[in-house]
Specification:
This protein is mostly helical and 99 residues long. Helices cover 72% and strands 0% of the residues.
Length: 99
């Protein structure tokens, strides 16, 4: 029958390692993780603020582009209307008799 405590994967001296506090001294303290976690939180908040600022700038640029394109369309429409009315403003040309 399989007994995990006597398996080759679980050597008998592993219990000794768990009781030995030397590896715990080499392991970083909770303060170390707290400082790095706070740093990561600050970086994340900064990135979110930058992302929001960029989103607002993109929206402003898109609106500006839309406004300019609408203005351009209005100018083109005015030019088309003027072009349509231009023949009405011209003096009639004299028909030359052909021989």
């Amino acid at each position: 029958m399989y007994n995990p405590t006597h398996s080759a994967h679980f050597p008998q001296h592993s219990a000794e390692l768990l009781s030995n506090k030397e590896p715990l001294k080499q392991f970083p303290t909770a303060r170390y993780f707290q400082v790095h976690f706070e740093f990561l939180q600050e970086q994340l908040q900064l990135l979110l603020r930058v992302q929001e600022t960029m989103r607002l700038q993109i929206n402003q640029l898109e609106q500006s582009l839309l406004d300019r394109s609408q203005l351009g369309l209005n100018e083109n429409n005015m030019t088309d209307v003027e072009a349509d009315q231009a023949p009405l403003r011209r003096e009639p040309t004299k028909n030359k008799a052909r021989h």
